[in-house]
């Protein structure tokens, strides 16, 4: 239900348009595919991904000898799921350690929803009975530490912090010691997201990662890149920058509730080969969903 509500904007513009197209045409012809192509592009599915999709659709329509546009509908859904699920890097499950501490690092530029996502995920882990800690690693942005503390209080998770402006690597060190001494299961680490100074930002990230790696072999177990779905192609550019700079293991795509361009999920997966692990569908603590391509696509057309 929540999934359906959260995707209502994409559904209204994308799915409703596909439905309208399907009902308007008498037979599946070249014009039909051209209009479909346009709808997909406008949903931010991404040019390359759209081309692949249309090719495959045409082939399938020919193979099954489909004439009636209403029959194309289910093939579209199938192909959208298949585009996402191709390859083996599609699992949305997290690399959680069976025993000992799991460290999850969150990266991404300011304003994308990093802090909010950490809060939501902290809440999820807590309700699974796990002991969670948060590290206030964004010591740069004014108010970032306080904002994480607000989330910590809201979901009942302790936040490890230092004064604003201090060394984020030192915060991580502290947080790891605290997590060890409290026998925590999960440590969620915030990081700074200023992109004005890309080189410094990436250096800082590297340093933070090194401290984590040194203190806990095999950590960080996940590096989740948070992207704002409403920023479209900008999100793609950010993803490429971060992918080049660090080993991103998954994407959290936030604010899908605020965009009609939900096709960006497919573009990210297809063009970057990084799995989308979570989607944000609102500002409240329950508004984070594990991503599943089938559920997503069929949710759009439900
Ligand atoms: P940060 O700078 O990356 O830590 O971003 P914040 O966590 O502070 O989020 C920026 C704004 O986006 C806040 O107003 C959040 O409430 C909002 N936000 C975050 N995730 C979502 C989401 O999934 N949906 C919506 N509608 N808003 C979100």
UniProtKB/TrEMBL annotation:
Its EC number is 3.6.5.4. It is a peripheral membrane protein. It is found in: Cell membrane; Cytoplasm. It catalyses: GTP + H2O = GDP + phosphate + H(+). It is an enzyme of class 3 (hydrolase). The keyword Cell wall biogenesis/degradation does not apply. CDD domains: FtsY. GTP binds at residues 108-115, 190-194, 254-257. Keywords: Cell membrane, Cytoplasm, GTP-binding, Hydrolase, Membrane, Nucleotide-binding, Receptor. Its main location: membrane. Residues 275-288 form the SRP54-type proteins GTP-binding domain. Part of the signal recognition particle protein translocation system, which is composed of SRP and FtsY. Belongs to the GTP-binding SRP family. FtsY subfamily. Involved in targeting and insertion of nascent membrane proteins into the cytoplasmic membrane. Acts as a receptor for the complex formed by the signal recognition particle (SRP) and the ribosome-nascent chain (RNC). This is Signal recognition particle receptor FtsY. It comes from Niallia oryzisoli.
């Amino acid at each position: 239900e929540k999934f359906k509500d959260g995707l209502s904007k994409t559904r209204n513009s994308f799915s409703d348009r596909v439905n309208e197209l399907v009902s308007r045409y008498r037979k599946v012809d070249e014009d039909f595919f051209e209009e479909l192509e346009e709808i997909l592009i406008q949903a931010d599915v991404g040019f390359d991904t759209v081309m692949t999709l249309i090719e495959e659709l045409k082939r399938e329509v020919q193979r099954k000898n489909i004439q009636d546009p209403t029959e194309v509908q289910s093939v579209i859904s199938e192909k959208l799921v298949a585009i996402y699920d191709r390859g083996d890097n599609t699992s949305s499950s997290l690399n959680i350690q069976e025993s000992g501490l799991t460290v999850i690092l969150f990266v991404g530029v300011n304003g994308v929803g990093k802090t909010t996502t950490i809060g939501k995920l902290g809440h999820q882990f807590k309700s699974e009975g796990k002991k969670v800690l948060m590290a206030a690693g964004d010591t740069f942005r004014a108010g970032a530490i306080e904002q994480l503390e607000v989330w910590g209080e809201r979901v009942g998770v302790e936040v490890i912090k230092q004064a604003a402006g201090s060394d984020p690597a030192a915060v991580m060190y502290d947080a790891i010691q605290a997590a060890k001494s409290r026998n925590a299961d999960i440590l969620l680490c915030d990081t700074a997201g200023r992109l004005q100074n890309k080189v410094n930002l990436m250096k800082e990230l590297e340093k933070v990662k090194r401290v984590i790696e040194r203190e806990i072999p095999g950590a960080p177990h996940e590096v989740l890149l948070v992207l704002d779905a409403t920023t479209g192609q900008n999100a793609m550019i950010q993803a490429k920058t971060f992918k080049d700079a660090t080993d991103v293991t998954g994407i959290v795509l936030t604010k899908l509730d605020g965009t009609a361009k939900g096709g960006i999920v497919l573009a990210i997966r297809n063009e970057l080969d990084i799995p989308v692990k979570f989607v944000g569908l609102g500002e409240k603590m329950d508004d984070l969903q594990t991503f599943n391509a089938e559920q997503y696509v069929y949710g759009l057309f439900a």
